Every structure is written in C-alpha cells, then in structure tokens.
Amino acid sequence: MTKIQENTETNLSADVLIIGGGIGGLTAALKIKELSPDASVLLVDKQTIGWGGKANKGAGVLWMLMPDQDIDAFVDFHVRSIGVFLNDQDLLYAMAKESYAAVKKLAEWGSRF
Ligand SMILES: Cc1cc2nc3c(=O)[nH]c(=O)nc-3n(C[C@H](O)[C@H](O)[C@H](O)COP(=O)(O)OP(=O)(O)OC[C@H]3O[C@@H](n4cnc5c(N)ncnc54)[C@H](O)[C@@H]3O)c2cc1C
User: Fold this and answer.
1) Can you give the pTM of this predicted structure?
2) Both ends of the chain: CA-CA distance in Å?
3) Is there a single domain that holds both residue 106 and residue 74?
4) Domain range for residue 100?
5) Which of 23, 84, 91, 98 to probe ligand 1 with, by most ligand atoms within 8 A of CB?
6) Greater pLDDT, 63 or 93
C-alpha cells in the first residue's frame, strides 16, 4: 500500500505563481510565457492540472460568436428569452466579444476544434 508522506516541505520560487490549473490558469500561464518568455511561471493545483476542476471534458461544447455576429442581439436573447446572466450582463457581453479571439488563440496554441 502506498503510504502518504506527511510533513514534507518543498520550497519553490518563480516570477509568477498561478493557483489553479483549469482553463483559466493554463491560459494565463501560456499567455505570460508568450509575452515574457524568460519569466518563470509556477502553476499549482490542489488536484489535477488540465481537467477543468471536477469536470474533465465536461459536455464537450464550446460556443463562440463570429466577428460579424450581433453581440447585442446575442446578449438580449440570453437575458430575455433564456434568463441567464441576469446578474452580470456585462460579463456575458465581454465573453461574447472575446470568444472568437480566445478560440483563435487556443487553436494557435495547438488545440483542435
Ligand atoms: C459538469 C460540467 C460540464 C461543463 N461542460 C462545459 C462545456 O461543455 N463547455 C464549456 O465551455 N464549459 C463547460 N463547463 C464549464 C467549464 O468547465 C468551466 O467554465 C471552466 O472549467 C472554468 O475554468 P476555470 O479555469 O475558471 O476553473 P476550473 O476549471 O474550475 O479550474 C480551477 C482549478 O483550480 C484548482 N483549485 C481550486 N482551489 C484551489 C486551491 N485552493 N489550491 C490549488 N488549486 C485550487 C481546482 O482543482 C481546478 O483545477 C462545464 C462545467 C461542469 C461542472
């Protein structure tokens, strides 16, 4: 049986420390290295890096708006008809606005869609 070692101490240092290795943390780490290749980045997770928290692979759905699509109409539909993001419509608008560039960046980094 594997015995879990307790009371071990490790000292690490880096220019940037990122806590959490979901898509947000991984994207931040890659972006920092892209902007500043010499910076050392340390990414830590309490569980498993790259699994999106507890939702490994999730539903496999990824939405984005094409640049020529109407963001206001998209937000209006989601808020009024579906009833989501009532509490933070600015965030929904920002997500919609950034989605195309974000997916393009992920593809550039090697993600397949
Ligand atoms: C069941 C389910 C299905 C989903 N399906 C989809 C889908 O099909 N398409 C889609 O786009 N989105 C989907 N999502 C949403 C998507 O998974 C999240 O929006 C996305 O994972 C959020 O990324 P994040 O990096 O902000 O957070 P997370 O992915 O949650 O990453 C946070 C990380 O931080 C770590 N962490 C937390 N606290 C600490 C701590 N104190 N110390 C160290 N590490 C810590 C966690 O272990 C985790 O790895 C789904 C979510 C769920 C729950």
Assistant:
1) 0.83
2) 41
3) yes
4) 62-113
5) 23
6) 93
